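Memo to structure team: turn this sequence into structure tokens by end of day. - J.P.
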Amino acid sequence: MKDLVEVIAKSLVENPDEVVVTETEKEDAIVIELKVGASDMGKVIGRQGRIAKAIRTVVKAASSKSSKKVVVDILQ
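Reply from structure team:
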């Protein structure tokens, strides 16, 4: 899942070197944290959060076979 989020984020931003994705596994969920540069934050979130919602939807579909819930957090 980490690789999927990283590929999507790097294709959206102008500075792909600033994209950092970390994956943390907890008891009942997998938390994926996405950090991008300040100038690219709007491109990852999108208008009214549409792109962020789309990223979460794609990750949810890709993780449907997993028994754990996958959460995508976008951090500054």
